[in-house]
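Sample entry (51 residues):
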Amino acid sequence: MAESCPKCNSKAEKTKTRGLDTFYKCPNCNFKFRVVELHASKEFANSEKGY
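Predicted structure, serialized as tokens:
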């Protein structure tokens, strides 16, 4: 899933992922931003272990 830079709307490159946060950097204007994944993964949501 490609994210667009909120500043210049170019296609941003994913730099790293930490937990639910995915970090992006725009190669065009060098703007760095973060996208937070809001929903849990399917495996986690469907697991029947008592978390």
